[in-house]
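Because discrete structure vocabularies remain unfamiliar, we first show an illustrative case, written as a sequence plus integers encoding its fold.
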Amino acid sequence: MQLGIVGKPNVGKSTFFNAATEAHAEIANYPFTTIDANRGVMYIRKSCPCQDFEVTCNPKNSECRNGTRFVPIEAIDVAGLVPDAHKGKGLGNKFLDDLRQAHALIHIVDASGSTDEEGNPCELGSYDPLKDVDFLEKEIVYWLFGIIKKSWEKIARQCELEDKKVERMLSEKLTGLGIKEEHINAAIKKLEIDHSKPSSWTDDELLRLTDYVRTISKPMIIAFNKCDKAPENLMLKKDELKDYIVVPTSAESELALNNAKKKEILEYTPGAKDFKILKKEELSEKQFHALDYIKSHVLDKFGSTGVQRCIEEAVKMLDLIVVYPVEDDNHLTDKEGRILPDAHLIPRGSTAKDLAYKVHTDLGEHFIRAIDARTHRVIGSDHELKDGDVISIIADA
């Protein structure tokens, strides 16, 4: 699973990415700082099973902090998008191509209205952030439409001459974009398009289908970034985005808190509504005022910096659950003796065999049975897993 961090240049995408991944993408106040996509790992918070089993875990692919497991999900921060990107303007073609495998998008919007449509700095509050939501959706839809339209006549003719399902043919064409047959089928039903004769579809019908497919195949969260600097009239505009989850966000504050935590100046957990200063005597007056600003203008006002919430809302939107594979269901260990070593995000509805393939292809191909470590009951290959399950997989050697 992969989350795409998107938006026009200079809205704080790389700052958000750095704050969420503790990576070091270049940050600067000019358009197109990010040219090559930055890849990293973000984390969501879940209650660790170590509390239920009353054991001390030894995580390998994730961290446990006081019973909270930080479960990894891949992230990509791509080049900034500008109007007419689907026509190749700016770095549009590269931006859109980098998004192919993203399952959901976090759209970083400059809520302060201090960057114009090209991503250049402008007077605070002078640009309407809602325009960015409209144009980014349009660019992605027209990009997808162009891909579909390029081979549409051939697909439509083949469907009718060979009596093939249009949703299957189209999904095969779009498989590299993470678009599945069920996405297209849902769009056709919702829009009531005649699937029996695709050659009769108009460009308008094809565009509406593309728009709906984008909505369900690459759902989007809106991060209303720079919320601490945004004029009140612009912050109120988030209420107009009724079809989205909108999260007030200050990526700059999250990054500052994480950096201070690394230096052991303060105690802070991503997503928390407060922090604790540990070394007040080591803070300069400027640093102290900066932390006081973050507390009063971000944490007290909005409940958090919003960065962690954006990630977790995106995972909820994708309806993912967390499961914990182990080798020994009695001791909850892997072959190296680590307790509850791994945590994996998988789609809700996944089976024990799906988990086996997630862990390793050989486990999936030689799957015999699995054991639920909570109940010690044997479960079959088609057993549907639940959030928080701890599962031991038995395979034929």
